[in-house]
Sequence to fold (213 residues):
Amino acid sequence: MSTFNSHGTAPADAPTSTVPSMGGAPVAPRGNGWGTTALVLGIVAVVFSFIPVMGVVAFVLGPLAVLFGIIGATRKFAKKGAAIAGIVLGILSIVIAAIWMAVVSAAVSSADQALNSEHKVQYVVTTNGKASVSYWTSGGTSNVDVSTGWKKEQTVKNSDLLSLVVSGDFSNAAAKVGCEILFDGKSISKNSGTGQGAMASCSGSGLGADKQK
Fold:
């Protein structure tokens, strides 16, 4: 039962009924699990993308971050910030990982070429009498007896270890022997010995030969 004041109107504090707006109230943005997942995957992918060997992980997590981010960004009434960030980070991780892979691949190719490129090596022996020579070849160590100056040329790889040893006649007290290794015409090792049982030993490789004077 309603009460009225003296003027015949309802009091100010009388309860009144409300009618929902036909247009509907604004819907508050909901959480976005897809977007959050995309963001987490994107962050992890970016971290791995900076690690040269582990960067391949970014090629898996990066696309997943992009995929989940797209799904999250297209959901209605859901926050899209995390989804968009996940897409950006996913794409960024793929780009960074691809750059690192190209750099590492180029470095490996360069190192392989440096180690396995072929070069000319020349063994040079000098002696004033009989001497025994031991030198490295691609098939192992070879030996030869000489009585005068001796040279041997062969093809080697840059990483091959080179060795040349010459021993004079033990009965010759005035023996003089010498050895030298030339790599592409450049001397990388040289030695000599005199007297009874004279011996000279030379060794080296092509690595760093281009920096020697």
Observations:
- The first helix runs from residue 33 to 49.
- The longest strand covers residues 118-127.
- The radius of gyration is 42 Å.
- Strands lie at 118-127, 131-137, 140-146, 150-157, 161-168, 176-183, 186-194, 199-205.
